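To whoever is covering the structure queue this week,

Two jobs came back overnight. Logging them here so there's a record in the thread.

Job A:
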Amino acid sequence: MQRLKIMSIFGTRPEAIKMAPVLKILKEEKKYFESKIIVTAQHREMLDQVLNLFSLSPRYDLNIMEANQTLFEITKKTLKGLNEIFLKEKPDLVLVQGDTTSAFASALSAFYHQIPVGHIEAGLRTPLIYNPFPEEMNRRLISVISSLHFAPTYWAKNNLLLNGISPKNIFLTGNTVIDAMLHISKNIKSAPQLLNKLKNKRIILVETHRRENFGKPLEEFCKTLKKIVKNFTDVEIIFSVHKNPKVREVIFKKLVNSAQIHLLEPLDYPDLIHFMKKSYFIMTDSGGIQEEAPSFGKPVLVLRKTTERPEGVQAGAAKLAGVKSSKIYKIAEQLLKNEREYQKMAKTINPYGDGKAALRIVQAILYFLKIKHYPPKEFKG
């Protein structure tokens, strides 16, 4: 039989991490698939970290990143670059992941070429199209375009059904970030040296990068961190500072002279896992960390007004802390003072995956393309 050409497209570090387990299995299934990788490089340096970590070799690199790039520029450059590639390659299926502008523009380009799209991590929703921005609208539009929807949880699957997506095109798989995290967690050895200096401290891991938190919300959050370290002398904060200049300008201006707050360059994925494992709890607006942290028994304070990942909140592993300093501090203080409340969050079961999502996705593709007769068994979260 003629092998099917699948082109997987991504541009940021989180996309690459979540795509990597799928790409590994596609590569192993050479009998059925010719797998090719395209990167937009929406985030150049942080993307390259993961390409090296998972030994991923792109066939095409659009290299679109530039300083202070706009959503318009990302979309325009991605559409232009993919048009030329699709005309040449004529793939049978395009895979995109999540809700980035790279993912949306890639799905749109595939639609223009009448190429079926498979959407990994489909069905996440918030009630507000501008929160998170632009991710919420990106994922809604990708859902309209896609032929295959790989929902990570039952809640996500139900969102797709409510949006009128046919049940036969939805596959409940779990989230591939758990596959990636478990794989790397088993194989990493050396821990960051900073951890040795903080052995007897309670570590709070911090990561924030969402556009809706730029400006005043980020300034408010800096005040919260200062108040925490002032009132809890045994706490040390590890802040993985995103590359975005609008994040760095505020963080370094407000926190650079705080002795208990360590401002680090964006952690590579193995170091991030080390710090997650050793943290007392985590404060973030990152979607991926919300999914990963429960596997390590780490409570998460979600620094957002809404979350498209409510399963963690419902399970008790996360709390929606919002963006106001007083509310964030109150929740952090409760976890630092109340051991019973802390343990209640720390002992929840991860609702996002079991490490077999990538296998289910590839099996679903084989079923959808009528190569296999039976769909994969659904993830039971």
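Job B:
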Amino acid sequence: MSLFRALCVLGVAGMLVTARAARAGELYSYVDEDGVIHFSNAPSDTRYRRIGKKPSSGGVYRASAQARARPMPRPGSQDRYLEHIRGAAAKYRLPEALLLAVMAVESNFDHRAVSEKGAVGLMQLMPGTAKDMYVRDAYEPAQNIEGGARYLRILANMYDGDLVRTLAAYNAGPEAVRRAGGEVPDIPETREYVRKVVALYEAYKAGR
């Protein structure tokens, strides 16, 4: 069985937490029966599990004022990709809002975007990742979105639906998360990336 298939069949079981265990600065998450990732700093469902505390010197678990203040992408900029986004979200059991948030931060919905490190397209796939995710043309929107969603699903399975670690691994790679003891690596770019994606995810979920 391939690594992709093995990871995709892994369960995304949550650990029990009680609502009274929530403290300011902590974040909780779980994946529901539809594969949707939920997170909260004030959990009201016993399926939530704690995934970390806000570090004392400005952590990644709450969107920073800078990230919250960043403008949303131009309205309608994602409309041409909505069919692909919805299809990938349904196929890989991910929230559409999460794909939108990752895409907005990665490329601002520019399918021609190329980073200094060589990441390509809407979801900024590195060549090796694109190949592993069966993406032949990373500039082609449907393939890029499909590959990015597939990779997010694999990471979500690896981290039991832990949104913060999933995003950190998407940005810095699973090996960087492993070297950080399973936590978000102390890399300014990664910390800011998680802040921005979480802030946009919250905004898209709220319909803003």
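Note for Job B: Residues 1-25, 52-71 have pLDDT under 50 and may be disordered.

Please reply-all if you pick these up so we don't duplicate work.
Q.
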